[in-house]
Design brief:
The chain has about 425 residues and is α/β, with parallel strands linked by helices. It folds into 3 domains: about 100 residues, no CATH class; about 120 residues, Nucleotidyltransferase, domain 5 (2-Layer Sandwich), CATH 3.30.420; about 140 residues. Helix 2 runs antiparallel to helix 3. The longest helix has 22 residues. The relative contact order is 0.10. The structure holds zinc ion.
């Protein structure tokens, strides 16, 4: 019986003993009575041998891991000792629970492991039968251990920002990670230039010189920052952001075209509205040979013909579509020359002002976009993935009020239990 309970609860300390009939059910909660005692020879206070005697017990209710869906508490009777030499008293100790603590170490570890997922603190609290404040305390304690300020920088970095709590001074917070191992290096509360400078001056100049590439979106202060603080770093504009900017303008242009014919040609309006996805598809993937029935079209047709027909109705949309598709194709093919030629040729075509603005920005960042083609394995993908997780975390908890707690949770999610294997694999991938 005793050993069964020990196995069931996974208690390894042999000084804890269970008697028969020690499990009691009170209000759907399991109370398991046990005693902790062992012989003591040396006094903890005066270090003298002999003279230590048993001196009664002290009971404490320790929150333990849930068993078969029921909350489980250990009613632990701890042995008290008295030293006849110095008169001091002390209590028996166990690795099951920390000193002066009523929550078992196993529960704390369970809380930390649940906190590495995007579940809310309230949910974790109800699952482990502790209060929300306990969860917060445990999360903070675990995060404190891994929150040590990094002193070294990886060779390849990704920069990005995310919307954190309302108490943050700048609108956005700044996050940066290793582009190879996908590990978050650190989070900075404010993404404005002076705050970032202050943050990065913590690293020595030698350390900053080691950074070879930095992947960023098209946010001008980052470029200023990198030029000043990272003398050897190559700036890479993230390809996802280039495609995103192009697609956004194409969509805007299509909607403008829609609104022009809204009251004149309702059928055309509906067609432009319904087949929005076909415009964003890669041109290669459009179908020209197989004919099918399409709603809003009278005869059999295919996706390629639908796009061609709609483009022929609007000159500006046609030009915009051409430029966007060509630029995206050159990105796919990793052909910087084609990208630049398309960029130059586009300047004397009739395009929407929005796309013209985007192309102007591209021309401005021309030298950095070239790097995008050169280092095609380095993208902001890993950090965008982390950002998505941050968003889910915030949504699950219905928002965070305290920036520090929020940062701790993000660090726990991204850093605790990072397997060495994954790190190795990604490194190999990168070298190949
Ligand atoms: Zn003593």
């Amino acid at each position: 019986m005793t050993h069964d309970i020990r196995k069931l609860l996974n208690i390894k300390d042999l000084n804890i003993k269970f008697s028969d009939n020690c499990v009691e059910k009170i209000k759907n909660k399991l109370h398991i009575k046990c005693t902790l005692t062992y012989p003591v020879d040396t006094c903890l206070c005066c270090q003298k041998q002999g003279g230590v005697v048993k001196n009664g017990t002290r009971s404490s209710r320790i929150t333990y891991l849930e068993s078969a869906g029921q909350a489980c508490y250990l009613i632990l009777k701890k042995q008290r000792y008295l030293c006849r030499n110095c008169g001091h008293t002390f209590t028996a100790e166990t690795n099951l629970v920390e000193k002066n603590c009523f929550i078992s170490c196993a529960t704390k570890q369970k809380i930390a492991s649940l906190a590495t997922d995007t579940t809310s603190e309230k949910k974790i609290a109800s699952q482990t039968h502790v209060s929300i404040h306990t969860v917060r305390r445990v999360v903070d304690a675990f995060a404190c251990a891994i929150r040590k300020r990094p002193t070294t920088l990886p060779e390849h970095l990704c920069f990005d920002e995310f919307k954190s709590t309302r108490s943050v001074k700048g609108v956005m917070s700044f996050i940066y990670c290793d582009a190879v191992t996908h590990q978050v290096v650190d989070i900075v509360e404010d993404r404005r230039l002076y705050a970032l400078k202050e943050h990065f001056y913590r690293y020595s100049r030698q350390e900053r010189k080691k950074v070879k590439t930095i992947c960023i979106d098209m946010y001008v202060p980052y470029i200023k920052l990198i030029r000043q603080l990272f003398p050897n770093a190559t700036i890479i504009i993230d390809r996802f952001h280039i495609v995103q900017a192009l697609n956004r303008e194409l969509n805007r242009c299509r909607i403008q075209g829609m609104n022009q014919v809204r009251y004149k040609d309702r059928r055309l309006y509906n067609k432009l509205k319904r087949y929005w996805k076909l415009f964003l598809m890669k041109e290669k993937k459009l179908e020209y040979t197989r004919y099918e029935r399409f709603p809003l079209f009278d005869s059999l047709t295919n996706t390629g013909n639908v796009v061609d027909y709609l483009l022929n109705q609007n000159e500006v949309l046609k030009n915009t579509y051409r430029v966007v598709q060509d630029l995206r194709f050159s990105l796919d093919q990793s052909d910087p020359l084609m990208f630049l030629t398309t960029l130059y040729q586009a300047s004397n075509q009739s395009l929407t002002p929005g796309l013209k603005r985007v192309l102007k920005t591209f021309t401005k960042f021309k030298q950095y976009i070239k790097n995008t083609f050169h280092y095609h394995t380095l993208t902001n993908g890993p950090i965008e993935g982390i950002n998505n997780k941050i968003k889910v975390l915030k949504r699950n908890a219905y928002g965070y009020k305290n920036y520090s707690h929020f940062k701790n949770r993000i660090l726990l999610i991204s850093r605790l239990y990072v397997s060495g294997r994954k790190e190795k694999e990604t490194k190999q991938l990168f070298v190949a």
